[in-house]
Amino acid sequence: MPLPRPQAPRRLALALLASGLLAACAPPHGPPATPLPPLPLPAAHPLRSLGGLLLNRDVIGFGGLSGLHVDDNLRLTAISDTGRWLRARLVLDEAGHPQGLAELESGPLSDGLPISLPGRFSVDAESLARLPDGRFLVGFERWHRIRAYDGISSWGEPVEAPPGLSAAPLNASLESLAVLADGRWLVITEGLEHAPGLLRGWVGAPGAWTPLAFRPTPGFLPTDLTPLPDGGALLVERRFNVWERGFRGRLLRIPPERLAALTAGSVLAGDVLLTEAELPRENWEGVSTFAWQGRRLVAMVTDDNEFFLQKGLLLLFSF
């Protein structure tokens, strides 16, 4: 006896199910990033917005970008708190406006273990800095430590971390790490208290760490650092508040004279460059500076937490 043919509604349902399965199995498409217009900053603002990029997490393969470095040749390197690295070429037009990302490469970030520990305990990469010899430094939290990489795709090796770093909260440790113009390393923790209203930090290098404190903007916490060629630095701050529609971000500048004068017990603070009202409401976690055609540019990136309500953004500014 022949089987009865599916009725029209059943045929439609089967067709929709099949198309959905095909769509789910189809490879991601589209560019890895699409241009965004400049932010409407005041004419007298110390920074000029050059626009940005909306990152396509599906095409890139992951999100959660937490550390950023862009060199003077527009080579972009980023790390993710999922334990991945990304390399790409930042494409700019003649005016410096971002147009996209090209020549993408990515892979797993070595945590120094033959087999990574369960979850994110050994791979939660949060900060990225570059040494004068070209090696990358990566700061990890959960398992608080610093590793040095000849290339971001290499195996890497452990580096002596500042004393007392192991006392940092599980998910609030090595968010900010920079190699200053004079060669000193600057480390500021996200949640290890020095005293009420102050966070613990260090300046120096392995074997020669000097403890200090950082005073964040009330309600904010530091999430990344980048050096400036004049001996200063830029620092990103971030806060999260459910009642204020989620994340807010700020960009501070730390003048060179403050960094030059650091001694044991110094309290460091920054001056506001970009306020929370001037930046999109996203989870700002990465900053880098670089030279381009005689100008100093600043790149900032968000961590989208691989969550559908958040965006991966890369914004560009000039001094």
UniProtKB/TrEMBL annotation:
Instruction: Name the domain of life.
Output: Bacteria
Q: Does the keyword Metal-binding apply?
A: no
**Residue ranges occupied by any Phytase-like domain in the UniProt entry:** 61-305
Q: Provide the alphabetized UniProt keywords.
A: Signal
Q: Return the PROSITE patterns for the record.
A: PROKAR_LIPOPROTEIN (PS51257)
Extent of the signal sequence: 1-23
What organism does this protein naturally occur in? Roseomonas haemaphysalidis
Task: Quote the protein name from its UniProt record.
Answer: Esterase-like activity of phytase family protein
This protein's record includes keyword Signal? yes
Please name the Pfam families in this protein's record.
Answer: Phytase-like
